[in-house]
Write a structure and sequence with these properties.
By secondary structure, the chain is α/β, with parallel strands linked by helices. The protein is 48% helix and 17% strand. This is CRISPR-associated endonuclease Cas1.
């Protein structure tokens, strides 16, 4: 199954039998077979015909509309798509079951962040790396005994501060400067890549959650609302470091990103340009298609996302099957 990214501005999506054509003017940029399509993500100003929308609704293919910078405006889903059956099970999870799962999610996020720093420390040890690694290790232990989600979020926030406080030690390209994590707006080029990457991955997880029939607004760690699909945020935590952070480091340290042409200032922040988004998405797709060794054998990273969403679904049906987040080594 394939996700279609429309990041170039001024595109026009039309239907030709069982194919979606992506055009700009008279030029056909790409074409995708409908049966192979999992979701469509439209960044910025592009048009989708009624015929394409109808075909996607009939096949349960979500269409996601985002700003050029990756902010999600909304998703188009068929009217029959509902979460009633599984939502009932999700709502019936006890406070203890939710807390245990939230503890596991935070611990996994902290452990994966620590592994990213450990890899750099093995290449070149520095005092900031050592301090951050020790701090995160302590917070992993604290998270295991946290008595509330509020305490857990505090440990998660402290871990993120330690991790990003040493993140610059992992950067080998002196053109890219990183001091601290900034989100709205991203304060520099590294933050621009991180924010965009998290948003793209969040949308993928949201689609997988909906395809499994889970209610994305009921979660264990994050608080859901009408505008916040909290379960996607919960499941994102374990994948931030191994997928997005590691890809950002790879692109920067291999000097694959150009600081002049791949970024642009806007609204007091720094964002990926059209060229930068296209470059990032191409690298993201390649990374997700790579086969990696996991507990169930060798599999593409795409399958790993599916595996974790299905594991969460099994946990919802039978909480005795404790949810185990993905942890890298």
């Amino acid at each position: 199954m394939r996700s279609l990214y429309v990041s170039q501005q001024g595109c026009y999506l039309s239907l030709q039998q069982e194919k979606i054509l992506i055009k700009r003017g008279q030029q056909v940029l790409d074409e995708v077979q409908l049966p192979l399509l999992e979701q469509i993500l439209v960044f910025g100003q592009s048009q989708v015909t009624t015929q394409v929308i109808r075909a996607c609704l009939q096949r349960d293919i979500p269409i996601v509309y985002l700003s050029r910078m990756g902010f999600c405006y909304g998703r188009l889903l068929p009217i029959g798509r509902g979460y009633r059956q599984l939502a009932r099970y999700q709502q019936q999870l006890s406070a203890v079951e939710r807390l245990i799962t939230a503890q596991a999610i935070v611990q996994a996020k902290l452990k994966n962040s620590r592994v990213i720093l450990l890899r750099q420390q093995r290449r070149q040890a520095t005092a900031p790396l050592t301090l951050a690694i020790e701090s995160i290790e302590y917070l992993v232990q604290q998270a295991a005994t946290a008595e509330s989600t509020e305490r857990l979020m505090g440990f998660e926030g402290a871990g993120a501060a330690s991790y990003f406080g040493a993140f610059s030690e992992c950067l080998a390209d002196e053109r890219f400067v990183f001091i601290a994590r900034s989100r709205r707006p991203p304060g520099n080029e590294v933050n621009a890549m991180l924010s965009f990457g998290y948003q793209v991955l969040w949308n993928h997880l949201l689609s997988l959650i909906e395809l499994q029939g889970l209610d994305p607004y009921y979660a264990c760690l994050h608080q859901g609302s009408e505008r916040h699909a909290a379960l996607a945020s919960d499941l994102l935590e374990e994948f931030r470091a191994p997928i997005v952070d590691s890809l950002v480091l790879y692109l920067i340290n291999r000097r694959m990103m150009d600081i002049e042409s791949d970024f642009e200032p806007k609204g007091g922040g720094i964002y990926l340009s059209n060229l930068g988004r296209k470059k990032y998405l191409r690298a993201f797709l390649q990374r997700m298609e790579e086969r990696i060794q996991t507990d169930v054998g060798e599999q593409p990273r795409w399958d790993l996302l599916n595996q974790q969403v299905r594991a969460y679904k099994l946990f919802v049906y039978d909480p005795v099957r404790v949810y185990k987040p993905h942890v890298i080594r």
